[in-house]
Amino acid sequence: MKIGIFDPYTDDVGGGERYMLTIASCLAKEHSVDLFWDNKTDVKRIEERFSLNLSKINLVKNIFNGSVSFKDKILTTKKYDSLVFLSDGSIPFVLSKKLFLHIQQPITSISISSKDKLKLRRVNKIFVNSSFTKGFVDKTYGVRSELLYPPVSIFGNKNKKENIILHVGRFRVLNVRTTDYKKQQVMIDAFKDLIDKGLKNWKFVLAVSLPDVNDERFVVMRNSAKNYPIEFIVNSNKDELWKTGAKAKIYWHASGFGEDLVNHPELAEHFGISTVEGMGVGAVPVAINAGGQKEIVKDGENGFLWNSLPEFKNKTLELINDQVLWEKMSKKAFEDSKFYDEENFCKKVNELIK
Description:
By secondary structure, this protein is α/β, with parallel strands linked by helices. It has 13 helices and 13 strands. The chain folds into two domains: about 1-150, Glycogen Phosphorylase B (Rossmann fold, 3-Layer(aba) Sandwich), CATH 3.40.50; about 165-340, 3-Layer(aba) Sandwich (Rossmann fold), CATH 3.40.50.2000.
């Protein structure tokens, strides 16, 4: 088959890009795959950051960037057996034999017009990254979407552990209107409080990615951690990151804390790839009880869920002070992480896109 892949968020490299390019990589093993992307440098950067093999994928002109006429765009799409779109909520009009939409986040603020309903008839499947996202997408579009959890690299639970709490996440997300989407400052302040109240011989490691390391807001956040056992890993690729991350005992996640998640569910984590990656090295997650985290973390079994800052800190201390509990949860977290590995993802992709 001839398959085209389109991702509109080329200026904000994260989970969506990793998801779509892993789809492209999976399909390219048996099909001819074109990626509608103008900037080859961006693709190379993503390939290196996420350790992807994109050598079999063809980079072609992005016919969906607005500079191509409607006629030329439509005629080009007719050449494809299947097109796979990362949708921002919109529904494209194309003439490919099949059309698949991937929606990465809960969509609540759009209304489906009669025109949209007509275009939906040409969509063969909509697939989503979590049951959390699925609930909103199905209601908004009046569909039954398919669940396809993101691909996760499982690095193994064979490393000697150190007293490290780890968090991995972008510093800022361009298409989310909040200055601290990942709540990294919240976690820094929580760790500082634990240290001030007597916690010793532990450190907090934040692995962050951002376009500009001199971003004033990042500099302020980094400076707030001075004189505490807090370290930053900045813009590291996946393999390098997990050389350090594999030593962690605990993984922290806080996206959505303090936000109005009833009216703005998009501010919660839509799935949580980094949480699963942490589990995949035996780090026990202590994650906010919101969004996709609730699907990953089974409270009291493979980690802890929390609703308030005191609960967040107390459950962390429970793991720190009870080695038997930590070992039990660490083993369970590692075993559960295998469900999300890249091999399973590729198998499901090929089943969906036939």
